[in-house]
Structures are given as structure tokens and as C-alpha cells.
Design goal:
By secondary structure, the chain is mostly beta strands. It has a domain of 98 residues: Immunoglobulin-like (Sandwich), CATH 2.60.40. The chain has one helix and eight strands; from the N terminus they run H-E-E-E-E-E-E-E-E. The protein has a four-stranded antiparallel sheet, with no helix packed on it. The protein is flat, with a radius of gyration of 27 Å. The termini are far apart.
Length: 161
């Protein structure tokens, strides 16, 4: 019985060692990726998408411009927001060397508070995606005054004449 228990413990230990998580390389948005100089090279005007301070339900769309400074066509394979509130749209056709393109980023401006999201852009340059940082702050929209409210009169009426 003790042989089986020992064997069982050794198996669990071996499985535990093989299930260790391997470290993932995280690329900071401002870091340059290592790319093939003879291949496509995606260069952004800015990797920061700043909404600034806007009112709730404000303009949800921002545009990020980039240029293919490489020697081969650039293909954007995928763009993915860090959550469903950040939705990118990108050109599906190849961007030729020397040409520019745009990625549209739509943020759900019905939310309130600080914006701190990312958009990962995967291309045919290499294995590491570009990371766009989406930042800003959304404040509650001021309510518009419609019909003035009736003030109560001293005699207890509704204030109407």
C-alpha cells in the first residue's frame, strides 16, 4: 500500500512541475520591436490614443495613423481591444511600402471615469504585436434645463397663476 501511495505522490509531483507557467514577454507600447529591415515595418505617429477629458456620450471615435516604412507590403492580421468597450477597425488590404493607413478606435463613452485600455495590433512584421494605449477621462454630462419647475407658493398652491 505504501508503494502505491509513494508512486502516486511522485506522479502528482511530476505533473505539478510540468504544469508550471512559462513567462510571457510583455512589450511596452514605447519599445521598438525587432523587425526584419527588408520586410514590412509599421511606424505609428503615436502609440497613445488620448481621449482627453470628455463628457459622457461624447465622440467615441479616435484615429491612429501609421506608415509602412519597410520594403514589403504590411498586412494587419488582427486588432484586439483589451475589453469589449474598445473596438478597433483596421484596413484589411495590404499597405504598400511608403504608404500610410489608419486604425479607427471606438470607445464606449457611455461609461464614466478614467479610460485605461489597450489595443494590440498583430501584423506580418514579426511575432510581437504593437500595443496602443487608450487613455482619457469621461465626466458625467451636464443635464440640460428643459421646462422650469414650478415653485411652491406661500399659500400652499402649486405656484401657477
Amino acid at each position: 500500500m505504501s508503494k502505491y501511495l509513494t508512486l502516486l505522490l511522485v506522479c502528482f509531483f511530476a505533473l505539478g512541475l510540468s504544469a508550471q507557467i512559462t513567462p510571457t514577454k510583455i512589450t511596452h507600447p514605447d519599445q521598438k520591436k525587432e523587425v526584419n529591415p527588408d520586410g514590412p515595418v509599421m511606424e505609428f505617429e503615436s502609440t497613445k490614443v488620448d481621449y482627453g477629458t470628455i463628457e459622457q456620450h461624447g465622440e467615441p471615435l479616435r484615429v491612429v495613423k501609421f506608415t509602412n516604412t519597410g520594403k514589403e507590403p504590411l498586412i494587419i492580421k488582427n486588432c484586439k481591444g483589451s475589453c469589449g468597450c474598445t473596438v478597433p477597425q483596421w484596413p484589411k488590404e495590404p499597405i504598400m511600402p511608403g504608404e500610410s493607413g489608419e486604425i479607427e478606435i471606438r470607445y464606449a463613452t457611455n461609461r464614466l471615469g478614467k479610460i485605461n485600455k489597450t489595443v494590440k495590433v498583430t501584423t506580418n512584421e514579426g511575432s510581437d504585436p504593437h500595443v496602443l494605449k487608450v487613455v482619457g477621462n469621461i465626466l458625467k454630462a451636464e443635464e440640460e434645463e428643459s421646462v422650469p419647475k414650478a415653485e411652491p407658493s406661500m399659500l400652499g398652491g402649486s405656484g401657477g397663476k
